[in-house]
Write a structure and sequence with these properties.
The chain has twelve helices and four strands; from the N terminus they run H-H-H-H-H-E-H-H-H-H-E-E-E-H-H-H. By secondary structure, it is mainly alpha-helical.
Length: about 325
Amino acid sequence: MPALLRRLLLAPIPRLGWTLLLALLLGKLVLWIAPAVTRASNVTVTGSIRNAVMTVIVFAAGLWLFEGKRPRDAGLGLVGSVPETARGFLLGALLLTLVTGVLALTGSYELLGWAPVPEGTTRASWLARAVLIFLAVGIFEEVLFRGILFRQLEQAIGTWLAIVASALFFGLGHRGNPGATWVSGLAIALEAGALLAASYVATRSLWMPIGLHWSWNLFEGPVWGSPVSGYPLPVLANARFPGPALLTGGAFGPEAGLPALLFGVALGTWFLVMAVRRGQIVTPAWMWWIAARVRRPRLDTVAPPPDPERVSPPSTA
């Protein structure tokens, strides 16, 4: 294959298309081998683990086939995975606890007691189920949106534009959820999509946003009893939200409310400042090429050198 053609076919944006093709082929294979697994709901243990495993396989295969890299080269290595995930988990837990605390202080959150659990189960087993599901959801969505989508966009259009584009895709991905509105979609894009991308840029590790995403969902729903992106998933706390939708997010949950938006944007900004200080911002070569030509002075705007015959001699007085 000619070098130029290979370069065009394996450029960042075409690679997204090849990766999508890999995902479709893997989906067909799983449907053929295990149709029951394919039909499992995304909010079940089977469905969430299926999504996570298939996405990691596509991610690893795409890296190897199209970039000659391994998962660790893109932030999914095993070395340091536990402490990085733990740091992200603590940040997410703190963030959603602060949001819930603000709602409680403003009279928009009321704890009613223990949440009811289905008959024939225990609270501990139901919580363990939620922990496992949300870990799988965190891996699935972060590898998909940050490891595949954001990373390829960043190579094509640079860090700043890639954050905006991937955040909008992330917000749009939640528009079909129960109670979703354009406000909730925009809020998810800003407070979660941009935040999670910024955490990846600052650390260059997918484990940080995975941990953050994991605990965000876990503490918002099972722990504090809030709807998670429109889905009611209480396990420990049974709560109600009597405050205005501006604060509580209405039927979609606190993610569409003002406190979550402010805290999420603040944390994302902190990650971006860290990324800039660490020199982690990517600017593609074509942007440097354009910038160099924009800054180059035009010949007709450069002042001509003075005529030596018209230069007055210095005064000796």
